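The freezer alarm interrupted the setup, so I double-checked each line after restarting. Inputs confirmed:
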Amino acid sequence: MTIRTAVVTGAARGIGAAVARRLSADGLAVAVLDLSAEACKPVVDEIEAAGGTALAVGADVSSESDVARALDEVTGTLGAPAVLVNNAGILRDNLLFKMSVDDWDQVMNVHLRGSFLMTRAVQQHMVAAGWGRIVSLSSTSALGNRGQVNYSAAKAGLQGFTKTLALELGKFGITANAVAPGFIETEMTAATAARIGVPFEDFKAATAEQIPVRRTGKPEDIAHTVSFLASEGAGFVSGQVIYVAGGPTD
Amino acid sequence: MADQKRFTGRTAIVTGASRGIGLAIAGQLVADGARVVITARRGDALKDAVEQLGGSEHAIGVAGHAADTDHQAEVVERAIAEFGGAHLLVNNTGINPVHGPLVGIDLDAARKIVEVNCIAALSWIQQVHARWMKDNGGSVVNIVSVAGVKPAPGIGFYGASKAMLVHLTQELAVELGPGIRVNAVAPAVVKTRFAAALFEGREDEVAASYPLRRLGEPADIGSVVAFLLSGEAAWITGQSVVVDGGLTLTGGI
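Predicted 3D structure, all chains:
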């Protein structure tokens, strides 16, 4: 039996780590990729302790040479990637009039340039295999969010990116979809609460009040959906943005 | 427990399930451990479907008209009495009896489409809510259509009715949360008798316009419906998931 290989970017923590653990539980070998291989080690250890196969890979997804080197390592060690999860992301929130060019560029580079470089490097393996799954992490912020002109533009950009991948790569048996989380409890959203000076528990409770299912999301909620989109059962779903937000969106 | 599946101990009602997409959904749910109550107009077709689903241990067929509230009430009551609950509902029944421009559509046909595709779907939710889900929670999936997401000339009124069901899905998600989740699945052309006019005799030609270069199979829909009904989708509600092989990206339906 061949074991498929998945690459999950931004997988040292939060949603990415939950996705990596879940894809491993689904039976895939998982490349846990983040800026530093050292930071990925706890996730890899956890996967291995549970009987799975994982590899810690350090790379900056916005660097063309890093991406090339990382994928050589993944392909050589685990095998050619069949699943790619473009999850790496950063926040550099600020109101437009206070946002620096650097804050704009960094957010664009990690989300858009990073997803482009990773996907361009991985697609050749998927095309050769005639099978592939690309899942990119968008966000409800793509619909607009105060203080996130850079992040919302990048997350909306990933939706267009996904739809175009679906058009170009569909005939090779590759699906491309996006998952758009609402408020998920992670270090990233804790940082947002800290930035606006609200205790995280209060921030979560106030947010949950506005959500039809009356709770904030957990990284596992997103991991389940990514797992589904990577499965055989989602083989006719392509070019879609699945909002996992505890309620309707738009 | 080794044989514990994701819907073990759950009962699903699937309307319009004697064949096609409805039967595939029921089949997926049974494979995942659920017991199902399936409906259709014709009892003989339901009998065959129950056999295909593994017999009376796994499935009950109740014949009736989907828009008949007495039939709906009977189905929900039998689900509770014979299979122990009504945890999951799939509104799959739909009709598409007319083809042609909207300016020429027979208005009685239009009323009938709304009656079956929208009012009956809402009524099913009312029935299952009153008799089970308001006290026990649950999960609902409405089967809509890509024709309800983008214009589809020739079946425009069918599309309009499905767009209404998409909106009902959102309203109900807000109204019935947190205990009850309501989502929709929007298929493109799936190879069933219902959609035969859209592909028969020219499947390759039609499939060429799909980015994934094939038409849908009923099982493609069953797997997505099962995911949305499951606990893995616990933070997904009010959403319509398009299952179309990429078709709506191309501009046409």
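Quick read of the result. Strands of chain A lie at 5-9, 29-34, 54-58, 81-86, 132-137, 174-181, 241-244.
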